[in-house]
């Protein structure tokens, strides 16, 4: 049976960031990824101030800031009455970047290239997990689909909304948010001519928008209320694009339709929105012995605040901080009760933070697309956009802390490795 100090399931944002945080505090992790390469589903994502703070702690923020445009504000248009409102992305911390849309692949590559060679093991599907006791300490035994087994001091599930690790912990499955999302990247070889601001268009039952990545590419999205379970959803990217242009977005401004028309087909996706109920996070088991979760495996949320990837980066730093503190106290990564306690502290620190993000994201989407009469429209236009939206956006201003400095003498490094 193969042995490892830490096994991370999933090479998405949470998994790679967690591996990098652990590397910084002196622990080499083994990342198991079921796919044949880095995940690129989703094409792009927005990174708010909290994500940039975490990326700077991980030492990779500078790789992205020079490439992607920084957006200073969002312009919100009510399609029904043509009213326009502006929301600033400015933050109290003038040193930090406010908001940028980046290629998901570029973010993953920025994280992965700072990891030691051999950290990521592709085409590795986890079949089952079990606990094993040895000399008073608990270990996680990971059974692979190919028959192999790995014994680890610690197991971190970063394997997404349908996480095998979360299911082993007993977390309830994510639930349907009652909405679907279509996303894609638009490419304008001669330049798109858009200012570096996010544009959003809201009408009854849907919310759409776009944001520049650079002077030639824009990320566009559309979320809408849909009662189908997927039977009527086309899978061909060209058919998805035509459905958006001809039906879903037909009443939106021509500039939005132009974005969709210029989409790279390989980036166009259509997916159901799922989220983990906040009370399942607050009262659920987020860690058990030497096993815990991060990213969507812990706190799947709707994309209405753009905090899914951002909070996953927060997770990585907080987890690395608690593991680093453990190593400082013991001069090495120890299995058993102390590791379990470090995981409990990590889970408790994250529990209320991510439950709040899940709630704010869901309510933000609900109030913006709900189509239940004049009262909801009043709440959306006169209460949410004028007063509450800025409060909700303030959730982005969060400092996940610093990673501790771990002594890395040759002797201690041998103990950790």
UniProtKB/TrEMBL annotation:
Residues 3-326 form the FAD-binding domain. The keyword Oxidoreductase applies. Belongs to the 3-hydroxybenzoate 6-hydroxylase family. Keywords: Membrane, Monooxygenase, Oxidoreductase, Transmembrane, Transmembrane helix. One of its GO terms (molecular function) is monooxygenase activity. This is FAD-dependent urate hydroxylase. The chain crosses the membrane at residues 6-31. It holds the Pfam family FAD_binding_3.
């Amino acid at each position: 049976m193969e042995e490892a100090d830490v096994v991370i399931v999933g090479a998405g944002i949470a998994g790679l960031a967690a591996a990098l945080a652990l590397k910084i505090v002196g622990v080499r992790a083994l990342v198991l990824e079921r796919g044949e390469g880095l995940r690129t589903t989703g094409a792009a994502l927005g990174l708010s101030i909290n994500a940039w703070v975490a990326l700077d702690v991980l030492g990779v923020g500078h790789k992205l800031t020079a490439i992607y445009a920084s957006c200073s504000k969002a312009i919100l248009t009510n399609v029904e009455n043509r009213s326009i409102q502006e929301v600033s992305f400015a933050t109290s911390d003038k040193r930090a970047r406010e908001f940028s849309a980046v290629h998901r692949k570029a973010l993953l590559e920025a994280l992965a290239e700072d990891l030691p060679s051999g950290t990521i093991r592709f085409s590795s599907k986890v079949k089952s997990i079990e606990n094993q006791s040895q000399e008073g300490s608990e270990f996680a035994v990971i059974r692979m689909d190919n028959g192999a087994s790995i014994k680890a001091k610690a197991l971190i599930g970063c394997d997404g909304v349908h996480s095998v690790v979360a299911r082993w912990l007993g977390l309830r499955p994510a639930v349907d948010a009652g909405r679907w999302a279509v996303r894609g990247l638009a490419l304008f070889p001669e330049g798109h001519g858009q200012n570096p601001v996010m544009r959003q268009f809201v009408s009854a039952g849907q919310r759409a928008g776009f944001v520049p990545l650079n002077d030639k590419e824009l990320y566009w999205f559309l979320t809408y209320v849909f009662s189908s379970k997927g039977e009527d959803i086309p899978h061909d990217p060209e058919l998805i694009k035509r459905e958006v242009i001809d039906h879903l977005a037909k009443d939106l401004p021509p500039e939005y339709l132009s974005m969709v028309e210029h989409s790279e087909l390989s980036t166009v996706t259509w997916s159901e929105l799922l989220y983990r109920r906040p009370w399942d996070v607050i009262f659920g088991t987020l860690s058990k012995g030497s096993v815990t979760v991060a990213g969507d495996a812990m706190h799947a949320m709707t994309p209405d605040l753009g905090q899914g990837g951002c909070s996953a980066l927060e997770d990585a730093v907080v987890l690395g901080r608690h593991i680093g503190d453990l190593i400082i106290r013991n001069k090495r990564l120890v299995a058993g009760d102390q590791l379990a306690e470090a995981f409990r502290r990590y889970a408790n620190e994250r529990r209320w933070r991510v439950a709040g993000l899940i709630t704010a994201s869901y309510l933000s989407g609900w109030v913006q697309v709900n189509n239940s009469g004049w009262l909801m429209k009043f709440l959306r236009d006169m209460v949410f956009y004028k007063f509450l939206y800025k409060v909700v956006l303030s959730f982005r201003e969060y400092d996940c802390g610093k990673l501790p400095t771990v002594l890395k003498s040759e002797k201690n490094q041998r103990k950790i490795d």
